[in-house]
Amino acid sequence: MNLFEKFGIETENEHLYEVAFTHGSYGTKHNLDYTYERLEFLGDSVLSLIVSEYLFKKYPQYEEGKLTKLRANYVCQNALIYYSHELGLPDYLNVSAEESNLTHNEVISITADIFESFLGAIFLDQGIEFAREFISKVIFKYIDNDTVFFEDYKSTMKEYGDAKEVDISYKILHEYGVPHDKTFIIAILVDGKEMGVGRGKNKKEAEQNAAKVAIEKLGVLNE
């Protein structure tokens, strides 16, 4: 289905949406002077604002820290990937045929990126109210249903360390791959003792996975 019909967009700037779905590889192959990255930057801020506003009004009793943690669940990469696929956005992506061998990590990143770049285009073209309506249809239902997209295992381990008065730290064991597609292997140490190892496409993801292993090993959530 036509992108504009699908999302009820009336526009005189179709090129803006073409930009929103143009991956860097495609731009390079076709000598274009644009990619979706600037719109992704804008969309990230719009998404954070609208979700923050909704959470602020929905949970007047929550303090800043709890709101921040809650927001992270609905704007994290896992959530963006879910929204993007639910809306069928990858179908509109412009990517070079020569890039059909994209790594798994790159495909994941692109899928999340285009949700934000599309939102950025909507905001510029249709305004904040249309963007808010779009987000309300796509995301607010998951907030209302307390859907979990992201578990903050590191915070759980920090709370465990504070309660038990033990030191929680992380150590990079190995990293490999080219700069744009690295893999990190990181260990979590509890009072200097290795308690879990995690792998991820960035340090944060690897640390979260290591913390998850430690939580299961220590039975933290069962205490």
**Assigned CATH architecture of the largest domain:** Orthogonal Bundle
Q: Report the CATH C-level class of the largest domain.
A: Mainly Alpha
Q: What is the CA-based Rg, rounded?
A: 20 Å
Overall average pLDDT? 91
Helix content: 55-70%
The main sheet orders its strands as: 1-2-3
At CATH level 3, the topology of the largest domain is: Ribonuclease iii, N-terminal Endonuclease Domain, Chain A
Number of domains: 2
Given the helix and strand composition, which structural class is it? mainly alpha
The CATH superfamily label of the largest domain reads Ribonuclease III domain
Describe the sheet with the most strands.
3 strands, antiparallel
Q: Runs with pLDDT <50, length 5+?
A: none
The total strand number stands at 3
Alpha plus pi helix count? 11
Order of helices and strands: HHHHHHHHHHEEEH
**What amount of the residues lies in strands?**
5-15%
How would the global form be characterised?
flat
Q: End-to-end span in angstroms?
A: 51 Å
Helix and strand layout, with pairings?
Blueprint: H1 3-6, H2 14-20, H3 24-29, H4 37-58, H5 64-75, H6 77-87, H7 104-126, H8 128-138, H9 140-144, H10 153-164, E1 168-176, E2 183-190, E3 193-200, H11 203-218
Antiparallel strand pairs: 1-2, 2-3
Helix pairs in contact: 2-7, 4-5, 4-7, 4-8, 6-7, 7-8, 10-11
In a nutshell, what does this entry contain?
By secondary structure, the chain is mostly helical.
